[in-house]
Amino acid sequence: MVTNLKQLKPITDDVDFSNITIGNSNFNDDTWDLSPFIKNKNLKNSHKKIKFSYIQSEDIKLTVKQYAYYKLGKVKPKTVRDKINGRLPSFINYCKENNISSFSQVNQKILLDYVNKLKQDDISRSHGYHCTQAVQDIIETGQVKGWNVPKDNFNNINAYEIWKPSKNRKSRKTKPIPNDIFDKIVNCAVNGEKNVLTKAGIIIQSQTGLRISEVLSIKEGCIKTTDDGNDYMELTLSKTEKEPITHKVFVNDLVKDTIKELEEYTKDLREKSGLKELFLYKHGKIRPLKGARFNESRITTFIKRHDIRDKEGDLYPLHTHQFRATFVRELIKKKIPIGHIKKHFGHVSVEMTSHYLTLEQEEVKDIYGEMILDPNSKLAGKRAKEIEKTLEQEFQGKTEEEIDEIIEGLSKSMSFNPLPVGVCLYDFRRGNCTDGDGCFVYNCPNYITEISFYPVLKKELDLLEREMERFKDLGRERDYQRRKVKHKHLKPLVEDLEDEMELSDLRELENELDEEICKRLEVKINE
Predict the structure, then answer these.
(1) What SS3 state is found at 219?
(2) Pairing of the two strands 285-288 and 379-380
(3) Is 405 helix (H, G, I), strand (E, B) or coil?
(4) What does the pLDDT read at residue 403?
(5) How many Å apart are CA 206 and CA 320, to the nearest integer?
(6) What architecture is the 179-355 domain classified under in CATH?
(7) Are 471 and 463 in contact (CB under 8 A)?
(8) How far is 165 from 115, CA to CA, in rounded Å?
(9) How far is CA 137 from CA 110, 310, 432, in A?
(10) Which of 3, 21, 166, 450 is packed most tightly, with the most Cβ within 10 A?
(11) 460 phi/psi in degrees, rounded to 5
(12) Domain map of the chain by residue range?
């Protein structure tokens, strides 16, 4: 029995499906029991199963099973279950009503007709998008994998564009906080906020990127120190496939001082109630503070009290989840590659960083998408000029709100695969990248970078040149030539970014790069 998703083997043309097991089930079963993959005891057993019995056509059922098996190796089991059990049935019913017995019969006209039927059923935009995207993803994945699906190109059908909100509706997407407003929020929290609970919640979120529910879960004695002398905070992480776990994240002095003040502030409440949580308040009885209340009352009151306004002069509509999006943005835009940080902290505890550095895929892709697609982006790479020209034509004459909608739509439809110093535009549904590690020598047409990554690329170039000089002096010609290949492609890339920037921008970005990160990068390159 396969109990680890990493053990699932790719399906080949000559495979015997009866020999394939998924969790507690066989591939040919009409119900797949994913219990071995989903450890959360709070979920009902029925929520740990993928059901295919509602699909009467054996041909369609096989394609859906192939897709489910493929996706189980790519995303969370719960995501696959939700897609097959919750988003696909409406399409299967449509196929039954229209005598469609195979995905190979589905062309663009049929897919659009299905979309129109969904709209007539007056379902939510979100559900409509997910239902449409599920069908389209099965077809596009099947085209690459060689399943029994249509050969037509469906690229001109964009599920997001079909189901996107009307222009008079504001996007519900959580966006990072603008830098100037973020600075004011943190400054007001540290130096002006008198309510200790509000102050602590804002400071901890701003410095860690944790969700508000996670911040509010901390208990007395949550600050610990590793054997190496690094301080970290323990909290409860509940948004996971498994049961709630005790999670650890490193913290700075500002967070430590804030928690110390919070512990002292709620000391009497904890003694009277016997509760261990630090975010306690008394309203009739003593109780822990909840995330919804923090957003609805405390955040709103904080913004009004300190008169924090946006560029239009309106009170800034802050939501706590924006701290998470902002934290992700700053990790990326301050040129601290996620992979490098994870590797550095690995000797202490990978778990300490894996949660808030292994970020939600869509959050990372959205932020990278905005960086690459923004009208003010300055790009480098083989396709940089082509992308910039296309975007310039697309944005011409558009308002800021319309541009935001265009960027959001493009980021949903394009493939953005985050790299430590840029983005890979290769669509991995087509299999492994044929260029291998081509993007790491910066010579791949799918590799695009942006001015925000300049400091890391420039530092890597400087270190590479010093290393080449050292190998040349030592007479190590083979090592020198290996570095020279990378230098051949990295140097023009850095020069292209420098051409895009003013001298003042260059100096400012270079000064922002933390010297300690540079040293770690130097060690990595020397290795």
Answers:
(1) strand
(2) unpaired
(3) helix
(4) 77
(5) 9
(6) Orthogonal Bundle (1.10)
(7) no
(8) 15
(9) 15, 39, 18
(10) 450
(11) -65, -40
(12) 5-163, 179-355, 368-526
Rounded Cα gap, residues 494 and 381, in angstroms? 10
Q: In angstroms, rounded to a whole number, what is the distance separating the alpha carbons of residues 455 and 515? A: 11
Nearest to 199 by CA among 151, 273, 265, 248: 265
SS3 378: coil
Q: Which amino acid is at 267?
A: K
| H/E element, 77 | helix 77-82
C-alpha count within 13 angstroms, C-beta hemisphere, residue 378: 16
CA distance 198 to 205: 11
Cα–Cα dist 100/150, whole Å: 13
What are the backbone angles phi and psi of residue 195, rounded to the nearest 5°?
-80, 115
Average pLDDT for runs of 10 along the chain of length 527: 55 78 90 84 81 94 93 84 92 94 92 90 85 91 89 76 63 74 95 95 90 90 88 74 68 93 95 94 90 86 94 90 78 54 38 42 65 79 84 80 74 68 69 52 78 80 90 91 88 85 53 45 40
Determine the Cα–Cα distance for residues 308 and 208; give it in Å rounded to an integer.
22
3 state DSSP class of 232: strand
Contacts of 59 (CB under 8 A, 6+ apart): 101, 102, 103, 104, 148
Predicted confidence at residue 40, as pLDDT, reads 73
The Cβ of residue 481 has, within 10 Å, a number of other Cβ atoms equal to 11
Kindly provide the residue ranges of all beta strands, DSSP E only, lying in 422-480, ordered along the sequence. 422-424, 447-450
The per-residue pLDDT for 358 is 42
Contact between 412 and 167 under an 8 Å Cβ cutoff? The reply is: no
Q: Enter the tokens of residue 389.
A: 């020209």
DSSP assignments along 214-229, one per residue = HHTT-BTT-EEE-TTS
Which two structure tokens, joined as six digits, stand for 40?
Answer: 């959360």
Tell me the longest C-alpha to C-alpha distance in the chain.
79
Cα radius of gyration rounded to whole Å, the chain = 26
CA quadruple 271, 276, 278, 279: dihedral positive or negative?
Answer: negative
* Cα 328–chain centre separation: 9
What the block records as the tokens of 75 is 């995303």
Side-chain half-sphere exposure of 71, counting CA atoms within 13 A? 22
CA distance 372 to 360: 19
Q: CB of 289 within 8 A of CB of 384?
A: no
